[in-house]
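User: Please fill in residues for this 249-position structure.
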């Protein structure tokens, strides 16, 4: 049976995250139901990650075998015909038999967008974290704090899973922070991320930017390995998975 690779974009606003869950609507569940309808039997796929409820993706990658005689383009068009408007299959390509979207991933790029303007971002409100009125953040302080976080560290303080028993060591390649008018954009590039990690990193950097934490305090947060040392978890709607990296052949 042919294994396929799917490139997917979605607006996560009305979903309970990517991962298939019983009795709630998820991205994976929607896609699997359409593939199963097309194949005439149950189809299961694997995502490159597990985005939280309300989180978006411009380029999620999934993989799985599908019993069908359709071409990749026909599979894509069939799926897009039956999927809701907030999920789009951008590309379907045949993949090697052993290709696995999550296990073969070498890195991910997440983007978090913050809005700090005085007027309500009416058309962007589902895709940004709107700071409280009057709150200001210093991006230079945030950049100084981010420098402590780049590299390979134990990010247990930035993990939202209290029952996490596996290693919480992860490698961050870069954190880029840029200002675009009323928007502050944080780009996180890493080999892998823990549950809620990007959102907790963002919430912590905002605390630094607002002057409630010092940049150098990041060292204590990392070595302390305690969730209570880090800042709050930023809301989900500002987060978007931008890219998943794989080895180039």
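Assistant: Residues filled in for all 249 positions:
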């Amino acid at each position: 049976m042919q294994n396929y690779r799917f490139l997917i974009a979605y607006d996560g606003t009305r979903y309970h995250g990517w991962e298939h869950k019983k009795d709630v609507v998820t991205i994976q569940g929607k896609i699997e139901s359409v593939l199963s309808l097309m194949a005439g039997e149950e189809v299961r796929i694997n995502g490159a990650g597990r985005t939280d409820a309300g989180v978006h993706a411009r380029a999620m990658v999934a993989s799985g075998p599908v019993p069908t005689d359709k071409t990749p383009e026909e599979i894509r068009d069939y799926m897009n015909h039956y999927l809701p408007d907030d999920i789009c299959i951008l590309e379907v390509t045949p993949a090697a038999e052993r290709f696995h979207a999550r296990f073969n991933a070498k890195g991910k790029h997440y983007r978090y967008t913050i809005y700090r303007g005085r007027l309500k971002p009416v058309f962007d409100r589902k895709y940004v974290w709107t700071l409280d009125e009057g709150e200001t953040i210093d991006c230079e302080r945030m950049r100084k704090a981010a420098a402590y976080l780049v590299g390979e560290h134990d990010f247990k303080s930035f993990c939202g899973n209290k029952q996490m028993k596996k290693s919480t060591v992860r490698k961050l390649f870069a954190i880029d922070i840029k200002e675009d008018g009323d928007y502050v954009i944080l780009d996180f590039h890493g080999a892998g991320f823990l549950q809620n990690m990007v959102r907790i990193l963002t919430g912590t950097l905002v605390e630094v930017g607002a002057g409630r934490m010092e940049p150098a305090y990041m060292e204590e947060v990392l070595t302390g390995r305690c969730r209570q040392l880090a800042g709050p978890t930023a809301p989900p709607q500002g987060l978007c998975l931008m890219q998943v990296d794989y080895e180039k052949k």
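For context: The mean pLDDT is 96.
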